[in-house]
């Protein structure tokens, strides 16, 4: 009996011993919790307690809770400067041809902004371009203006932009087509774009009349204080570089929401030279400096691909269609898109007035077009 009794006592004793161990763990937690509550609600601060480690907490540079609360109400620190990712020409000059080539193709194919809704305007094949319909960047439907440079008898992009709700001015001097109203709010102009106003003789299509973007805006009464230019699309076979460099520098694109353009880094069938790469990196640097960020790039591997010699085994393309949005002109999605009344052309009366004004411009262009043909026609 005594043995069984001792065994029973041992069995009952073992679980009984476990409870005090739990209490031993619980008591310190309760003590710490009580101490925290006391210091929080008794008016004392941790920083006011001399904790005996190299003096008080204030001597260690701590701040009081009141100071923390005050700091929370202050304005956040200014954002870090937006550093252009393209180095200067001087730095690029120090790089090897291969390094510059790698940098160019890596940069041009790296998106810098996100567009949540991209719509193809025009043909799926060559001739169509993208529109960023993201609420942050999209133009105002029914009150937007597009300059489309480079048509080559394909108006599919321009027609889709008219259907979207924009007035479109299409420019191309190479088509031997007189200025006209092509369709509704689609106006065709037989002039091209360049870095200076003047005429050039194209050996295939004859004499071209060229103007800067600033001059086109002036002729069509679309200066920034007259009407906002929402979108510029440019595919002009090599004239993009000089035309855009000037337009960026003279402010002609400051109010543009979206800029889409083609780059032709070379016309040869092999690697572009280091100088050609640096030249177009200069344009891309300028584009970035003026707030435009790449959200999409198309590479034309059908017509412009080449096997690299300096990058053995690599295949690149010398032609890119670059689509950008202007982060300086973001919309506020929670608010309806509006313009100042002086820049708005949303009402029917304003649209009619704008149409009549552009018809007068077309009439004057017709005279210029005929004079250009007579001036340079063979006698």
From TrEMBL:
InterPro entries for the chain: Methyltranfer_dom, METTL24, SAM-dependent_MTases_sf
Ranges of residues in domain Methyltransferase: 100-269
Domain of life: Eukaryota
Biased composition (Polar residues): 331-349
Entries under Pfam families matching the protein: Methyltransf_22
Region (Disordered): 331-351
PANTHER family (alphabetical): METHYLTRANSFERASE-LIKE PROTEIN 24, METHYLTRANSFERASE-LIKE PROTEIN 24-RELATED
Name of the protein this chain belongs to: Methyltransferase domain-containing protein
Gene responsible for this protein: 106068302
């Amino acid at each position: 009996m005594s043995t069984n009794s001792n065994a029973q006592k041992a069995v009952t004793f073992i679980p009984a011993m476990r409870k005090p161990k739990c209490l031993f763990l619980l008591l310190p937690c309760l003590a710490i919790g009580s101490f925290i509550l006391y210091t929080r609600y008794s008016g004392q601060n941790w920083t006011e307690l001399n904790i005996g480690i190299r003096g008080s907490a204030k001597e260690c540079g701590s701040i009081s809770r009141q100071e923390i609360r005050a700091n929370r109400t202050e304005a956040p620190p200014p954002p870090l400067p937006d550093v252009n990712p393209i180095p200067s020409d001087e730095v690029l000059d120090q790089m090897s041809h291969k390094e510059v080539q790698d940098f160019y193709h890596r940069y041009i194919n790296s998106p810098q902004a996100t567009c949540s809704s991209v719509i193809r305007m025009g043909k799926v094949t060559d001739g169509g371009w993208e529109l960023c319909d993201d609420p942050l960047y999209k133009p105002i439907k029914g009150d937007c203006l597009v300059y489309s440079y480079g048509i080559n008898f394909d108006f599919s992009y321009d027609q889709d932009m008219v259907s979207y709700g924009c007035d479109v001015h299409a420019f191309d001097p190479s088509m031997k087509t007189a200025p006209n109203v092509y369709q509704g709010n689609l106006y065709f102009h037989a002039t091209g774009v360049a870095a200076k106003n003047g005429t050039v003789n194209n050996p295939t299509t004859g004499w071209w009349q060229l103007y800067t973007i600033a001059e086109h805006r002036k002729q069509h009464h679309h200066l920034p204080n007259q009407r906002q230019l929402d979108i510029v699309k440019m595919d002009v076979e090599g004239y993009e570089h000089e035309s855009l460099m000037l337009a960026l520098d003279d402010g002609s694109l400051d109010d543009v929401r979206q800029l889409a353009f083609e780059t032709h880094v070379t016309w040869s069938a092999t690697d572009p030279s280091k100088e050609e790469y640096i030249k177009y990196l200069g344009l891309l640097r300028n584009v970035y400096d003026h707030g435009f960020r790449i959200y999409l790039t198309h590479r034309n591997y059908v017509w412009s691909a080449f096997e690299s010699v300096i990058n053995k085994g690599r295949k690149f393309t010398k032609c890119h269609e670059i689509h950008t949005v202007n982060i300086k002109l973001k919309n506020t999605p929670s608010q309806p898109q509006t313009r100042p009344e002086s820049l708005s052309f949303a009402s029917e009366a304003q649209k009619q007035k704008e149409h009549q004004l552009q018809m007068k411009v077309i009439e004057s262009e017709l005279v210029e077009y005929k004079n250009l043909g007579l001036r340079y026609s063979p006698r």
